[in-house]
């Protein structure tokens, strides 16, 4: 289990590093495009390129820059979500570490660990409304990490 968690964390770390590199490359290219556009404008003003050629090139560069800005914004948002999730997981683990040997579920402990509990209506399994065989689903949402789906026993 520990090995699986470690592999998952390593994969997440690699993906985040790749996102950061992609964001840096996009931001660098956005700056380059701004410089290119300035030179292109100067060339147009001085008559080194035609107005038609300026329009073609500027449209292409502006479209590329717009796409890069959109991608950079999406990457920033994604990295922010990942950072927030990591912070929430760390907060949860701090609570867990504080209570490593839980022998009794106290109200204080419950308030620290559990955000909310949803109890669904009981469903009869034997076809009888008030029969002995019923199933009742319960969802537990833990502080900072949300609902954790555990495999059924």
Distance between the termini: 17 Å
Order of helices and strands: HHHEEEEE
Q: Work out the number of β strands.
A: 5
Just name the CATH architecture of the largest domain: Orthogonal Bundle
Give the helix level as a range of percent: 55-70%
Number of helices: 3
What is the CA-atom radius of gyration, in angstroms? 28 Å
Fraction in beta strands: 5-15%
The helix/strand class is: mainly alpha
Shape: elongated
CATH fold category name of the largest domain: Helix Hairpins
Q: Provide the number of structural domains.
A: 2
Kindly state the mean pLDDT as a whole number? 81
> Which CATH C-level class of the largest domain is it?
Mainly Alpha
Which sequence of strands runs across the widest sheet? Answer: 1-4-5
Describe the sheet with the most strands.
3 strands, antiparallel
Enumerate the spans where pLDDT stays under 50 for 5 or more consecutive residues: none
């Amino acid at each position: 289990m520990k090995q699986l968690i470690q592999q998952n964390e390593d994969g997440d770390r690699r993906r985040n590093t790749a996102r950061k590199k992609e964001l840096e490359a996009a931001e660098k290219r956005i700056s380059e495009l701004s410089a290119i556009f300035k030179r292109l404008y100067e060339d147009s003003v001085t008559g080194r390129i035609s107005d038609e050629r300026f329009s073609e090139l500027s449209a292409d560069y502006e479209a590329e820059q717009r796409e890069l800005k959109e991608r950079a914004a999406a990457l920033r948002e994604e990295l922010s979500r990942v950072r927030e999730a990591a912070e929430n997981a760390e907060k949860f683990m701090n609570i867990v570490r504080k209570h490593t040997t839980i022998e009794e579920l106290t109200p204080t402990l419950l308030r620290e660990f559990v955000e909310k509990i949803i109890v669904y209506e009981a469903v009869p399994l034997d076809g009888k409304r008030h029969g002995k065989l019923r199933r009742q689903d319960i969802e537990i949402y833990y502080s900072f990490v949300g609902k954790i789906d555990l495999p059924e026993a």
